[in-house]
Specification:
The chain is mainly α and about 600 residues long. It has helices at about 1-20, 25, 45-55, 65-70, 90, 100-130, 130-160, 185-200, 220-230, 235-245, 300, 320-325, 360-365, 425-435, 445-460, 485-500, 510-515, 520-525, 570-575, 580, 590-595; strands at about 75, 275, 315, 335-340, 355, 365-370, 395, 420-425, 530-540, 545-555. The longest helix has 30 residues, at about 100-130.
Length: about 600
């Protein structure tokens, strides 16, 4: 509407300058080359077309800010060049002028604005319909739009201004209507809960056919409702939704056998997926790859090595690397053994197998220089520029195209990726339900069931299970033989299971977890006391030439080499982080400046 007003002013000024007569009728003329709201929204076909714009709006990666949101937590170091960085999110020095904050806010309200058009016109059309099939179809469209409006408000509620943000439940028709005051956090929560409940009650558990692939379901609404109640420590209510997802056969959800199917392009929309955002490199090649209207993303370059076409905008934190490297495998599980040549290191002469270098979860989450079982971008190729340099001992595999190309530069069109963003998957639901069962570590009553859920997630990746030997659903598997209390299991969820299973996934999962548990500043302080160093790694490329990866093997402790570099993470964050200043984003200064109702 502001653009329309601006255009009328421009036309009026041109009339004055040219000395021509302009009437109000001319200013009210409809552009014959553009559809107006009066000529659109006539039927369910128009309604479904409008819904497509909502889905496309939600593809904007500024909504998820994968890189920045993980810098705010304990997951990443921002790029290369240790020990110095100017990244405001990692340093906890950001303010209301940050581009990422402004872009996130704007992108979410674009989705809300588009969803409101679908909801408003859908409700109007339903009042004119007498055919029940048309009513049902329109209701499903409205339910999808309300899901996206609801989840957009959950993101705003959890990320901005302690949850107090403007509510739009209508389509603005005048400039003044764009300037809404903030509503209380409780009102915002009630608003998005109502949207998600409507979606939960009116969306199908699954959609038929590839044409509907990627549409949101009642399972997605249940997951977001459950997460919302969990974040407020309403464990009993949250568990209702999580149990529904797990036990309702209509959803058809199950953990996939291969954890990599949750991260690869080939494994998209699998049985574990509950909510994911679809991307493709096959469309809109004419757009700049960073254009918000693009249907591809640029995350393939975000985490990969600079000399393999990446921006290395975020590399794994030292503690996270070590946690993955130290994951214990279930050595009774044949998936943890690979073929080997007789006489080679670690090779069993009878079975001609050896243990994997690292666990399956580790290998498909991180690229490590000595993981010889899972080559990264084709492995050590002859003449390949050296990865694992610049004090980079590991890279995230998630979001990158490491399994299908030798470099991100091989992707056509350039700088794009078609790998989907997974926002919710069943393993996350299992772990959230486990937390509910022990009520955040305060209730022993659901301990055994909680352990069983955690072990389902671990067993999928052939990890050593937790709990006493001979217990649970897999009594013959290797266990750590620890008798867990509810609080000890909660510690495991906080510092092992959730960060390692869900690293870099979802919407700010790690940051929101640490904040809601009330441990974020303490976490930075604890991690800032840890020291690491990088040892050299010598190997051969695929032509047999000896190559050295300098400082590529991360080891915990002080560097024993005189003058050698020692890694320390989060020293600045430990000092700078303040719950009042950094627990939530401020409303962007551009919005405050534009909206007079935010200046009071």
């Amino acid at each position: 509407m502001r653009k329309i007003i601006f255009n009328k002013i421009v036309v009026a000024l041109l009339c004055i300058i040219c000395g021509t007569a302009c009437s109000d009728d001319f200013l009210a003329e409809t552009n014959p080359n553009e559809l107006s709201t009066g000529s659109f929204w006539k039927n369910n076909v128009d309604l479904n077309t409008g819904l497509t714009s909502v889905y496309n709006g939600f593809k904007n990666t500024s909504i998820f800010n994968v890189v920045s949101e993980n810098h705010r937590a304990d997951m990443t170091w921002p790029g290369f060049g240790r020990p110095n960085t100017q990244n405001a999110f990692y340093l906890q020095t950001f303010n209301d002028a940050e581009n990422d904050i402004r872009n996130k806010w704007a992108a979410l309200y674009v989705v809300i604005f588009r969803a409101n058009q679908v909801i408003e016109n859908g409700n109007r059309l339903i009042e004119t319909y007498t055919d029940q099939d048309k009513i049902d179809f329109a209701t499903e469209i409205i339910a999808q739009a309300r899901f996206f409006r609801g989840i957009s408000y959950t993101y705003l509620y959890n990320m901005f201004n302690q949850g107090s943000v403007p509510i739009f439940d209508f389509v603005p028709e005048s400039e003044d209507e764009f300037y809404q005051p903030v509503s209380s956090a409780s009102d915002v929560k009630a608003f998005y809960i109502a949207d998600l409940e409507f979606a939960y009650e009116n969306l199908p558990p699954a959609w038929d056919g590839n044409v509907n692939l990627g549409r949101v379901t009642s399972a997605a609404a249940a997951a977001e409702l459950g997460r919302s109640y969990l974040y407020e420590e309403e464990y009993t209510q949250a568990a209702v939704y999580f149990n529904d997802i797990i036990t309702n056969s209509e959803y058809g959800r199950s953990l996939v056998d291969n954890i990599d199917d949750n991260f690869s392009e080939a494994g998209e929309f699998n049985s574990e997926s509950i909510l994911e955002v679809s991307y493709s490199v096959n469309f809109k090649a004419e757009l700049n790859p960073f254009d918000s209207q693009n249907v591809s993303n640029t995350l393939g370059r975000s985490f990969s090595p600079g000399n393999l076409g990446g921006f290395r905008s975020g590399v794994p934190s030292c503690w996270l690397q070590m946690a993955y490297k130290n994951e214990a495998m279930d050595l009774s599980d044949p998936r943890n053994f690979v073929p080997c040549e007789d006489g080679s290191e670690g090779c069993d002469p009878v079975t001609l197998t050896r243990p994997r270098s690292y666990s399956l979860r580790t290998s498909y989450s991180l690229a490590l220089v000595d993981d010889i079982d899972t080559p990264f971008y084709g492995g050590f190729l002859p003449g390949q520029v050296t990865p694992f340099n610049n004090k980079e001992c590991a890279y995230f595999r998630k979001y990158s195209n490491w399994a299908t190309v030798n470099s991100e530069n091989d992707i056509v069109p350039n700088t794009r990726s078609g790998i989907n963003i997974r926002l919710v998957r069943l393993a996350d639901v299992y772990l959230m339900l486990a937390e509910c069962l022990i009520k955040g570590g305060t209730d022993e009553g659901g301990l055994n069931d909680a352990l069983a859920l955690v072990n389902e997630v671990r067993h999928r990746s052939a990890l050593q299970l937790i709990g006493l030997n001979g217990t649970g659903s897999y009594p013959g598997a290797d266990h750590d033989n620890v008798a867990y209390s509810a609080q000890e299991l909660m510690e495991h969820l906080m510092y092992v299971e959730r960060p390692l299973e869900l690293a870099e996934e979802g919407h700010a999962i790690r940051f929101l977890d640490l904040r809601r548990w009330g441990v974020l500043k303490q976490r930075f302080q604890d991690l800032s006391t840890k020291k690491y160093w990088g040892d050299n790694y010598v190997t051969t490329d695929t032509d047999g030439k000896v190559v050295t990866r300098w400082g590529a093997l991360l080891i915990e402790g002080e560097n024993p080499i005189a003058g050698g570099f020692t890694f320390v993470d989060y020293a600045q964050a430990a000092v700078n982080y303040s719950e009042n200043l950094h627990g939530y984003y401020p409303i962007p200064n551009s919005e405050v400046t534009a909206n007079p109702n935010l200046n009071n």
